Amino acid sequence: MTAAPDPRTITPDPRTPAPDPQQAATRLPITAVTCLEDRAQVERTGTVTLAAGTQRLRIGPVTPLAVDRSLRAEVSALQSDGTHPPAGTGDPAGTGELAGPAARVLDARVIRSYTPAPPGEPGRDASQLRRDVHDLERELYDARQVQQRQENALAVVDQARTDLHRDIVQGAGAGAADPERWADRLDRVDQEAETRIGELHRLRRRLHDIDEELREARKALAATEYEPQVLTAHLELVVEAEEAGPAGLKVAHLVPCALWRPAYRATLGSGEGTSDRGTVRLETDAFVWQATGEDWHGVALSLSTARPTLAANPPPLTEDVLTLRERSAEERRTVEVNLREEEIRSVGADTADGTDGGGAAGGTARVPGLDDGGAVRTLAAPHPVDIPSDGRPHRVHLSAFTAPCRAERSCAPELSPLPVTTAHFANTAGHVLLAGPVDLMRGSGFVGRGELAFTGVGAQVRLAFGSEDTFRVVRQVEESRDTAGLTAINQRTVITRRVRLFVSRLDAQAGAPAQELVIRERVPVSEVSAVEVRVRTDASSPAPDEVDAEGIVRYTLALGPGEHREITLVHELTASSAVTGL
Fold first, then answer.
1. pTM of the prediction?
2. Which residue blocks in 174-276 are alpha helix, DSSP H?
3. Half-sphere exposure (CA, 13 Å, Cβ side) for 368?
4. CA–CA separation, 194 and 190 (whole Å)
5. In what order do the strands lie in the sheet with 229-241?
6. How far apart are CA 360 and CA 278, in angstroms?
7. Of 374, 372, 382, nearest to 436 (Cα)?
8. Secondary element (H or E) of residue 140
9. Which of 448, 484, 482 is nearest to 464 (CA)?
10. Exposure string (b/e) for 140-168, b if CB count within 10 Å is 16 or more?
11. Distance between CA atoms of residues 68 and 71, nearest Å
12. CA–CA dist 477, 488 (Å, integer)
């Protein structure tokens, strides 16, 4: 494997003829691609025939976007059956059955040049005059094809007339005259010939007109424009071989204008209905974009989160000056506090829209950047793929798994009055789940799009699969402020907040079973000793099932068809007289 192009001068063998700049290039197809976050590494492999001594190989054409300093080339011996040995092994299985000359690459570089544009359709930025010339050339070609067909048909008619004349002569000489039949056939042949000759004359006039228009258009094009040349590139390798024979050649280099992002599709249940909530099927896909100038046909695709252009040096350090000062008497007597919103984060549990459950239907669809958890991750497509160089996203399937899940109907009334169905399951894909958008599917079909956060192997995933229209939660908040204690001794400010939730199940099907609904409300959490927050279970009705350290209060209700419930949650915020900002 060579390093970057060697600046040293290569002295070829005097017995080797000088290389021809126009020599035929050897095509080396792209067989493997490793797509990185914002570029790709392409690998070309093939078989070349080497001569003894030092020689120059011309490989291509390749994309002009190839990064010169990333070019690597390697010559390897072939196996006894003529195939390439597995990657990373010089002798597969230790059999020693390798055939081919011993060779090494002395130099590898990218040679770029401008060449005339190949014939074909004009480019997207071509002028209207150039498009007119192309259309006239196509029309002229089609008209000449029609003329050829008409001339062939007329030749068939002439051959039929000749055969008919011979038949008349032979019949008259044999005494088997049939004037009526001969006259009918002659009339039919003459009529067909007249039709063909007329069409041929009209077509020749049309060809003359097209030639005149095309000549004028080409003259105008030559006076106003010049034929733009196309930048092409080839790989030039200097190889030294001990003896002649076939050998395997591998070339790898980086190209820009290629990237990938993960995407997922989650299906709740078996897909036969909404009653089956015991399983979740999660399919891992990748969207791949590339506009490198070369199509990838049947390549082994790998997807990596590596960032080869990321600077490895630590950031520069700057001085951070800290100063101390004495607090004033007013500052010593008061404690300034404020309320702030804090997002609770955990692995695999944060959501796209901030709702509990991992993203509601109708959230903003976006493809996030690659989040690999701080380590390089590599995923591989199970089958060869085709990615054309059109700059459009192409979806590639990577893996899929089905895992048992725990589904619950949960509601955060402060954010939305509609409960959502949330599924909790473990990541059993065998690899980490990178952050990316996820299409949410249920038995009724597509229900929305959420976002899946970075999830490790075996970690818990939480996804929301749309709202439940049969439930409604109405929220009302009442707040009162009072003081307690003696002035200037132990006076305290007491803020009492009463949250009332009206929960309704709207379907009225007689005999339907009760359904469970989890309601989560939040209360403030104090970080200073001068402020105390407590939930008054004696004044709340019913008492909360759980209050965690983050201030999330949970209620679990079982509601039958058409049933209504009312929940009252009371919590107090007590602050000393020295506290300001509330």
1. 0.67
2. 179-224
3. 17
4. 6
5. 53-62, 229-241, 103-116
6. 20
7. 372
8. helix 128-173
9. 448
10. beebeeebeebeebbeebeeebeeeeeeb
11. 6
12. 32
Strand ranges inside 226-305, DSSP E: 229-241, 245-255, 258-268, 279-290, 296-304
| Separation CA 421–CA 468 (nearest Å) | 7
Give 10-residue mean pLDDT values along the chain (582 residues).
38 42 77 92 92 91 92 81 55 45 88 81 78 89 90 88 85 79 84 87 90 90 80 92 90 93 88 64 94 94 83 76 85 74 54 39 47 84 94 93 90 89 91 91 85 89 87 91 73 87 85 87 85 87 88 90 90 81 68
Instruction: Provide the pLDDT for residue 5.
Output: 40
Give Cα separations from 171 to 157, 166, 167, 176, 188 (angstroms).
21, 8, 6, 5, 19
pLDDT attached to residue 336: 73
Compute the chain's Rg from CA coordinates.
40
Q: What is the reported pLDDT for 345? A: 57
d(CA 556, CA 292): 55
Contacts of 537 (CB under 8 A, 6+ apart): 543, 544
Structure tokens at 153: 């048909």
Strands 515-522 and 394-411: parallel
Q: Are 353 and 440 in contact (CB under 8 A)?
A: no
Q: Which two tokens stand for residue 475?
A: 């929220």
Beta strands 229-241 and 53-62, pairing class: antiparallel
Q: Which residue, 145, 129, 149, is CA-closest to 213?
A: 129
Note whether 391 and 491 are within 8 A (CB): no
CB 497 within 8 A of CB 479: yes
Compute φ and ψ for 217, nearest 5 degrees. -65, -40
Contact 20, 56 (CB under 8 A): no
Q: State the Cα–Cα distance between residues 179 and 177, nearest whole angstrom.
A: 6
> What six digits make up the tokens of 265?
């599709």
